[in-house]
Each structure stands twice: as C-alpha cells, then as structure tokens.
Design goal:
alpha/beta; SAM-dependent_MTases_sf; seven-stranded mixed β-sheet; Rossmann fold; methyltransferase activity; EC 2.1.1.-; about 40% helix; methyltransferase
Length: about 250
C-alpha cells in the first residue's frame, strides 16, 4: 500500500468521518474488544471517588464510545467531549447522557476558540493522536489544558515495533477492516486506518514523545486479546508544582 496516497489529514479526515458516522458504531461493534478496551484505558486513569468534583476532557470523542467509557469510570464527573467531525459529534450528542456531559465541535488544539479553556483534572484521548497532523502540538495543547498534577490517558493503535504485530495488523485490515469499510461506501477512511497505524509512532516512540512534551510518569500498558502489541494505553501526568520551600 502506498501510504502517501491513503492517509487523510485535517479537513479531509473530518469530512471522511462525517460521511462514515452513520455506520461507524456498527463497524466498530464487529471488534469484540473495541469498547471493552476503551473502558479499560479509562479505568487506568484511576480517578478517585467516581470522579466526584472533577472536570474531565474526552479529546476526540467520535460517536461517544470513549465518552461512555470515561463516564463508566467516573460516573460523578463533569465531562466535556470534543471532536473535529461534526457528523461524528451529532451521532454522539444524540445518545442519552446525564446532565454533566456536554459536546463541543472543535479540534483539540483550537478549543479556546470554542470557549473551552479548562483546566481539566484529567484528559482521555481515544484514537486521537494517530489522526492529527502535528501530535507534538496537540500534546502541548493537552498539557496546557490539564491542571498541574492532572492525568492523561491515551488509547490508540500504536504498534509495539515487532514485525509480527505489524504483519498481523495489515492482515486484519486487508481481510476484514478495509472490505467492511468498502461495503459501507467509506473505503478511503478504512484505508486511512490501515495506513495511519503503520505510519504512526511505535509504542516506545510515542512514550518518548509524551515525555519530551513535558509529561511525567509516562507508562505504556498493553490490552489483551488479538490487539496485544497493536493497541496500547499510555498514562502520564502534568507535573505538579514543587512543594513550598523545596530547593533544587
């Protein structure tokens, strides 16, 4: 596959997600681990007291699967869920949600233009960073939105670096993902999914990128099942201020 011709970015990618929004939940439902793994990554934030008193950001919420995962992990939190695709966001917002959940149409790096400024106690980013043109800029934006000591969980396709996992991902895409997407009339988006995972950082490289962006305590955790080595949870925090009186 020629990745340079299949990857979609920015407005082109948002339009592709708009077109695919009507069938997106059906296709992700074919992956038995899709929602369970999102819930696992949200739980890994280890938010206290069910999120009571916390304000959380769901960055790149899509049709709301990540929002539901975050809400399950923190049922008492306020959640602001954002996405650059208007079509995906409409699908998400049309679902039943408690009063503490709101949806905003904006890319993460331009949330201030939409009136979203934080600070947030935690950020959950499901399948976001692989799809952005400048992951370093988005990491910087997320760090600025977090309160000091706030937590970040990134859940994404990020290959381990093993040739076996790379080959398995391509085999699944060629046999299942791209044909299923083609049947819905959205072949371009699912070819993008295949190519974007192959082009994205390996898990160790993305962890390095997070640390370079100023996050601390970076950890990489696997998910079980066939996606082991293909999907990872990345955990980190914005550094907390040094205690008063501390010396360098």
């Amino acid at each position: 596959m020629n990745q340079t011709t299949t990857l979609l970015r920015d407005a082109d990618l948002a339009r592709a997600f708009d077109r695919a929004s009507g069938t997106y939940d059906r296709l992700t439902g074919l992956n038995a681990g899709y929602r369970a793994d999102l819930r696992r990554s949200a739980r890994r934030l280890r938010l206290p007291a069910g999120g009571a008193g916390l304000h959380l950001l769901d960055a790149g919420c899509g049709t709301g699967a990540s929002t539901a995962a975050l809400l399950r992990a923190a049922p008492y939190a306020r959640i602001t869920a954002v996405d650059a695709s208007a079509g995906m966001l409409r699908r998400a917002a049309a679902k039943p949600w408690p009063a503490g959940v709101r949806f905003v149409h904006a890319p993460v790096e331009r949330l201030a233009d939409a009136g979203v400024t934080g600070p947030f106690d935690a950020v959950f980013a499901g399948y976001l960073f692989r799809n952005v043109s400048d992951p370093d800029a988005v990491l910087a934006a997320v760090r600025a939105l977090l309160r000091e000591g706030g937590r970040l969980a990134v859940h994404d396709y990020s290959l381990s670096g093993s040739p076996v996992h790379r080959a398995l991902w391509s085999a699944v895409c060629r046999a299942v993902v791209v044909p299923a997407g083609t049947l819905t009339g959205n072949r371009g988006l699912y070819r993008h999914l295949h190519g974007s995972v192959r082009a994205f950082d390996t898990a160790p490289r993305f962890a390095e990128r997070m640390a370079a962006a100023g996050f601390t305590g970076v950890r990489v955790l696997p998910v079980p099942g066939w996606q082991t080595g293909i999907v990872h949870t990345f955990l980190a925090s914005r550094p907390a201020p040094a205690p008063k009186g501390a010396t360098a």
